[in-house]
Amino acid sequence: MLHRAIIWRVAQAVDSRQPFIDLANKLINLAEHAYGRREMSRLEETSLILMNLPIVGAQRIGLYYHGLTLKRKGKIEEAQSLLESVADNAPNPYRARAIQSLGAIQYSFGKPGEALRYYLDSLRAADQDNCDLLTTLYAYFEISHLQSDDGDHAGALATLEKVFPLVRIASSQNPSYFYNYWANTAFELGRIGRIDEAESALSIALAWPFALDYPEWYETRDDLAQKRASQTASIAAPNRDPVAAAAPEKNPERLPKPARVLARPWLAIVGVTQVTAQISDVAFATILYFPIPQTTLNRLGRAFYPRGPPTCS
After folding, report:
1. What is the pLDDT of residue 237?
2. pTM over 0.70
3. 291: exposed, middle or buried (C-beta count within 10 Å: 0-12, 13-18, 19+)?
4. Range of the domain at 271
5. Maximum C-alpha span of the chain
6. Nearest to residue 87, comparing CAs of 60, 108, 69, 66?
C-alpha cells in the first residue's frame, strides 16, 4: 500500500507540473522570437513570467532572457552579473548561451581577446550539451564579426558560408537567423567588392517584415549604393588618378557593434588553424577549426544524410 501511495503522489506531482512546463516552453519560444525581432518590452515581460514560474529551470532560463534585456538597455554590469549566474547554474543549453553572451559583453568593452575566449568556451559547452546548434551558430556569427573588425572580410565571409546549414536548421523555428545571415553576408560581400552578390543577399534580408528594426541593414544598403555609383563613375572616367583609386578603403562602423578593434593577434593566440571538411553533399571549403571536439560537425553531417521512410510502430 505504501508503495502505491508513493507512486500516486509522484504521478500527481508530475501531472501538476506539466502545465507549467508546457507554459515555460511556449514562453521560451516567445522570448526567442522577441529577441530576434528586437522587441525588448515583450522580451522583458516574458522573462519576468519565466522567472516567477514554480519551476527552478524555468526561473533560471528567465534570468538568461532578463540578462539579454538588461544588456540591450545598456545596463551592462547588471546584465553581466545575471549572465554569470546563468552560466554557473542554468540548465543546458542556456549555460552555453550565457557564456556566448558574456563574450558579447567583453566585445562591447573593447576586449576582443576576452570575447573570443568566451566564444570558444561557449562552443565547447554547446558541444558537451549534445550539440546545441543555436549556441554554435551565435558563436560563429560573433567570430565572423571579429574577423570583419580586423579587416579580414574574406575570412568573415568564409566563416558565414560554412555555417549556412546551421542557419537553415535554426531558421525553421525562428526566421530571424535566416535574415540576419543574409544581412551579414551582404556586408562582407560588399567589403570585398562583390557588389552584385551583396545587393542580392541584402535584398533577401530587407524582405523580412521586421527589417526596419535593424537600421544597420539600411546603412549597408546605402553603402552598397555608393559603391555602385563609384563603380559607374570609374567606368565613365577611366583616366582617374591611379593613386587615389588604389587608396585602401576605410572600414565603416557597423551597428550595433560599438567597439571596432583588431582581433587577429588573439586569433593567433588561441591557435586557430584551417582544415578541410565535407558534410554530406554540403561542401565546406577551408573550414576554420577551433580546438573543440569534432562531434558538432559529425552530428550536423548526420542531419544531412539521406533518410529512409518513417516506420510505423
Report:
1. 61
2. no
3. exposed
4. 131-234+254-302
5. 98
6. 60
